[in-house]
Amino acid sequence: MTIRYGGDYNPEQWPREVWDEDVTLMQRGGVNLATVAVFSWARLEPRPGEYDFGWLDDVLDTLHAGGIRVDLATATASPPPWLAKLHPETLPVTEDGVRLAVGSRQQYCPSSPVYREHAKRLVERMVERYAGHPALELWHVNNEYGCHVSRCYCEVSAAAFRGWLEARYGTVEELNRAWGTAFWSQRYDAFDEVSPPSAAPSFRNPTQLLDFDRFSSDELLACYDAEVEVIRAGSDVPITTNFMGFFKPVDYWKWAPHVDVVSDDTYPDPADPLSTPYAAMVRDLMRSLGGGAPWLLMEQSPSAVNWRERNAAKAPGQMRAWSYQSVARGADGILFFQWRQSAAGSEKFHSGMVPHGGTDTRVWREIEQLGGELARLSGEGVGLEGSRVPSSVAIALDWDSWWAIEQPASPTSVAYLEVLFAWHHALTSLGLAVDFVRADGDLSAYRAVVAPAHFVASDAQVANLAAYAEGGGTLVVGFGTAIVDEHLHVRLGGYLGEPLRRTLGVWVEEFDPPAAPDLRATGGGEAPAVGLDGDVVGGSASGGTWAEVVRVEDAEVLATFTGGALAGAPAITRRATGRGGASGGGWYVATLPEPDALRRLAAAIVDAAGIELPEPIADGDAVEVVRRGGFVFAINHGAGPVSLRLAGADLLTGSEADGLELAPQGVAVVAVETTD
C-alpha cells in the first residue's frame, strides 16, 4: 500500500499537448492518484445519447502509462445544458418558488426521475467502457452531494415527499399525531394535501421541517445509490463520494455505510485562527464515520480558494502542516482541487497544484516536497498506511438535533456545531484523540462520552446513554439534551426523561438563557453570559448560550450559577453510577463554560474517568500531537520555533526527535513503541 497523493485532474480544459507535460510533472511531484471527469458530462455526452469517450480513453491511457492511478468520476454532478432545454422540469426550485437556471453547476432536482435516468444511462456506458481499465483505482460518484441544491421544492419533489411520508408513517392519522397538527388547524385528511415546507406566513410546523430535512438527505442518498447499483453490477472496484466535513443538509451517519472509502473535501480558512482546531474536528469526524478505518482527503486547496469574501493564501508550510494533520488523524490519502489551476471559468482564481505561475513558485515547491515525503512514509516496512488512531473519548453527534435545535421558535439561538466544537477543542487541547459516535451506537470502547445539546433523543438513544453510564462509563450530558423525542414532542414531567433523569440524578425544570447576542463557543467579542463558580471550572468563570433551572434529586453539585435569578442554583452536577465506582459517573452541564473553564472542566472529567493524559512533548499549546498506530505526529501551528521532547528518529528528516527544533508549520513523524 501507498499513501495516495494527487488531485482533481481536468485535462478537457487544456490542449492535448499539455497532457504529456502533466504526467511528467505528476511523476516529478510524487502524484500517484488523479481524480478524472468530475465535471465532464457535457463533453462525454454532447447530445442526448451520443457519446464521446475517445478523449477520456486517451487521458486514462496516458495516466496509466505514467504509473498514475485513476479515481474515475461518474460526471453526473453537473448535467449538460441540453438536459434542461429538453426537460426543464429537472431544474430545482427554491423554497421561495424560484426555478434555478443553467450556467452554474448542480442544477438538478434530486427527486427528478428524468435526471436519475439520464445519469444512470451515462454511468452504464462508463462502467461498460472502463470497469476493466488497468488504471482504475476508485469510482467517484457525482460530487459534493447537496453542496448547492440540498433541498428542492418543485412538484416532483412534493410528490416524492408525500411518498416518503406515507412510507414512514403508514397512515395520515399517524402523520397528524407525529406532526401535532391539532395545533393551528393543520390537520390533514390525506397525504395529497401535504406539501414541502415552502415559504409561509409564520412559523412552519417543526416536525414537518425536520422530516423535510430527513427526506432531502435521503433523496440525495437515493441518487447516489442509483449510480452505485449500476457500478456494482459491472465492477468490483471500490466506490466513494466526497463528503464535506460537518455539512448540515446531509446526515453522513446514514450515508457512511454506503461508501467503501470515506472521503472528504475541506477548506480551512488561513485567516481564521480557529481553523486548525476546527479542521482537526473535521478529520476526526471522517475517521469516525468509517468506524476508525483510514479515509481519504479528496479535496483541499494548495493555497487560496476563490469563494470567500477575502481569500487568504496559506502561509508558507501551512498546506504541508494541515496535510499532515489529516494523515495524523487517519487519512491514507492527500488530494487537492485541483491539479492545474484553471485559466478560465468560475474557479480560475482557486489555487492549483500547478499554479498560474508554473513550477518556479512556492506552491509547486511545497507540492513537490510533500509528495516526496509521503512517498518515503509509504516505503516498505514503515507501516503507516492502514494504522488507526486510538481514542478513549467520544462525542455524540446527531443530525436530527442539529436540524431541530436551530429551527425558529426554539428556546434560544443555539449554533449546534459551535457547541460541539467547544467540547472537541477542550478535549483535544488536553492531548486526547476524540471520536464521534451515534447516541444509539456501541459506546463500550470509550471511557468517557460527551452528549452536548442532544436536543432530539429517541427512547432508544436515551436508554443507550443511560445504560452506558450505569455500566461503568463516564457520561457527560450537556444542556438542551433530550428535550424532545424524534417527532419533536416535548418530554413532559421534566426535561431529560427516564431513564436518563435517574442516571444523572437531575431533571430540568425551565430554560433561562442569557440575553442575546449569545456568547459563541468559538470566542470573539463581549456578550452577555451567566456567572459560574466551582472548582471544576477553576473558581469564578462564565458561561453562555444557554442556562437552565436544574432540579437535583440524587447528584453532587460541583458548580453553581452566580448572579441574577439563578444565583446559587446548580450549573454542573455529577452522580456516581453503576459499576464504574470512582471512575464512572453521570455529569450534567447546564451551560457552555467559557473556553478556559471548559478545558478545566474537561480535565476534571477525564481525570474522574481514569483517563491518563499524555505527557507534553513541547512547551506551550501551539504543537498538535497525535498518536496514530506506532507513530507520533508533532505539528507546530505556532508563530515561533519549539523544541521537542520525544525519543526516536524523525522519519521526515532522519534527525533525532529529542531536542529537534520545529519551525512554525514544522512537522515531525516519530516511530514509537506501541502498547496497544
Describe the structure.
This protein has a ten-stranded mixed sheet with strand order 11-10-12-13-20-19-18-15-16-21, with helices on both faces. It has a nine-stranded parallel sheet with strand order 5-4-3-2-1-9-8-7-6, with helices on one face. The protein has a three-stranded antiparallel sheet with strand order 22-23-26, with helices on one face. By secondary structure, the chain is α/β, with parallel strands linked by helices. Helix 5 packs parallel to helix 8 and helix 14 (416-428) packs across helix 17. The protein folds into three domains: 4-154 and 209-377, Glycosidases (TIM Barrel), CATH 3.20.20.80; 393-608, Class I glutamine amidotransferase (GATase) domain (Rossmann fold, 3-Layer(aba) Sandwich), CATH 3.40.50; 623-671, Immunoglobulin-like (Sandwich), CATH 2.60.40.1180.
Reported CATH architecture of the largest domain: Alpha-Beta Barrel
Radius of gyration: 26 Å
Q: What portion of residues belong to β-strands?
A: 15-25%
Number of strands: 26
- Class inferred from helices and paired strands: alpha/beta
Unreliably modeled segments: 517-525
Q: What's the CATH C level of the largest domain?
A: Alpha Beta
Strand order of the largest sheet: 11-10-12-13-20-19-18-15-16-21
Q: In terms of quaternary structure, what is this?
A: single chain
How far is the first residue's CA from the last residue's CA? 22 Å
Q: What general outline do the C-alpha atoms trace?
A: globular
CATH T-level topology of the largest domain: TIM Barrel
Sheet with most strands: 10 strands, mixed
CATH superfamily of the largest domain: Glycosidases
Helix content: 25-40%
Q: What is the number of helical segments per DSSP (H or I, 4+ residues)?
A: 17
| Total separate domains | 3
Overall pLDDT level:
95
